[in-house]
Amino acid sequence: MTEFILFAVVGFLAQAVDGALGMAYGAISSTVLLSFGVPPAQASAAVHAAEVFTTGASGYAHHYHRNIDWKLFWRLAPFGVLGGCLGAFVLTSFDGDMVKPYVTTYLAVIGLWLFVRSFRKLPSNPVPTRLVAPLGAAGGFLDAAGGGGWGPMVVTGLLGAGAPPRYVIGTVNASEFLITLAVSITFIVALVTGHWQEAGALSTHASSVLGLIVGGIVAAPLAGWMVKAMREQTLLRLVGCLIMLLALFQTVQQLGFV
């Protein structure tokens, strides 16, 4: 029960941040699980199992508050699904940490750029078509392989292109449901076919996963309203700060200080 309550609090806080800013549920939840000694592949599988429920609730909340650009949704989601399935397969095959230093550098630079740009007049540009496919595929891959990365990669890329923050965050959150569902199915297939031999201990963390689900579902409606209510400059500033903090924390992890 203590573990359930702890992860319910973690799930609530992570989903409140993720739903309002379009990122961090996977990164926060995975980090906490890893700190409890859960192996990376198992942590990613557990987080994605929880996200099937939390992203569904979050997507509905953003739909209710009309935060979703459906044209962008259908252009983005299929490539995220493909990238996510590939990332899950890679994670259950070998260590996916090799690309993390490059992703961390990308996030730090983009986070700083978004923060600086939030103090200027914000453009509202249509998202370039050529950007959507590679951004979705890269975000899905990193999300599965790293236990979190869909939001940081895709939200920062779309905001960097000048897309409106409210619709970027709502659309990325809604499309994440399909990515997490596909990744979870890939983990299950890898387990059933014997491709993933080390998944046996995952059942011992069932209370943690349930806590993440309950906390996330409770927070989802609140986050959908926050995106609609906050000023675009505030959203962009918060996203930039969060991205830089995530990049800093990942750097400290990679250097072995955490």
Uncertain segments: none
Task: Classify the helix fraction into a percent range.
Answer: over 70%
> Mean of residue pLDDT?
81
Global morphology: globular
Q: What letter string, H or E per element, gives the SSE order? A: HHHHHHHHHH
Number of strands: 0
As a whole number of angstroms, the C-alpha radius of gyration is: 17 Å
> How many helices?
10
Largest β-sheet summary: none
In percent terms, what proportion of residues is strand?
under 5%
For the terminal residues, how far apart are their CA atoms? 27 Å
Kindly name the structural category.
mainly alpha
Question: How would you characterize the overall build of this protein?
Answer:
- The protein has 258 residues and is mainly alpha-helical.
- Helices cover 78% and strands 0% of the residues.
- It is built from ten helices and no strands.
- It has helices at residues 2-21, 25-35, 40-64, 70-91, 100-117, 129-146, 150-160, 165-192, 206-229, 232-254.
- The mean pLDDT is 81.
